C-alpha cells in the first residue's frame, strides 16, 4: 500500500526581530564611528613597513608640511584644551576670552604664532580654513611649538605625541623638532607613515 505524503506548507519567517537587530547595529556603528579630520595642508608622509596603530586617546599631533611649516593639534578634550590655551596665554602674555577658547576647542590644528593666535581665533570658522598661515614658529630663538607640547604635558603627562611629516620636508626642520623635544626630555613619539605594499 502506498504511503500517504503529508501536505507541504510554505515556511513563513518572521523578520521583525532581524530588522530590529539590523537597526541596532546600524545605530551602533553610526554613533561610534570617528571620522578622520582633514589635514590643514596636504602632507604626503614617507612610506614604511610598520603596522603599529596609533593610540585613539590622549594623542597630540605635529604636522610638518613640504615647505617646513609646523602645525600643532592638541588633544581632543574641551576642558584640557581650554586649560592649555590659558597656559600658553600666560606664558606669552596674551589674554583669551571665552569666545576665543570656544573657537580654539573647535579648531583642529594651530598654525600661527602666539602673537597672531587671538586674531586668528576671532575669524569665522569658514574663513579660518582659507587663511594662509606661517606655521607655529620653531627655530633656535623661538620654540613656540615645543612650548605647546611642554604645556600639554604639564596638563596631562599621559599625553602621547604623533609626528606627521611630508616626505619632501628638509631634514634641518625635522632635526630642529627632534632637538626641541630632546630639550624637554621627551623621547617617545610616533612617526606617521603610509603603508608600503609588499610586492
Characterise the protein shown here.
The protein has 199 residues and is of the alpha/beta class. It has 7 helices and 6 strands. The protein has a 4-stranded mixed sheet, with helices on one face. The chain has a two-stranded parallel ribbon with strand order 1-6. A hairpin with a 5-residue loop joins strand 2 and strand 3. It is elongated. It starts with 15 loop residues before the first helix and ends with a strand. The model has no long low-confidence stretch (mean pLDDT 83).
Quick summary:
This protein is an alpha/beta fold and 199 residues long. Helices cover 40% and strands 11% of the residues.
Q: What is the N-to-C succession of helices and strands?
A: HEEEHHHHHEHEE
Continuous helix count: 7
Largest sheet: 4 strands, mixed
Annotation, overall tally of beta strands: 6
Q: Round the mean pLDDT to the nearest integer and report it.
A: 83
Cα gyration radius (Å): 25 Å
Tell me what portion of residues adopts beta-strand conformation: 5-15%
Structural class: alpha/beta
Fraction of residues in H or I helices: 25-40%
User: Which descriptor suits the 3D outline?
Assistant: elongated
For the largest sheet, list the strands in their spatial order.
Answer: 3-2-4-5
Distance N terminus to C terminus? 70 Å
Indicate the low-confidence ranges by residue numbers.
none
Tags for this model:
alpha/beta, two-stranded parallel sheet, elongated, 199 residues, 40% helix, 6 strands, 4-stranded mixed β-sheet
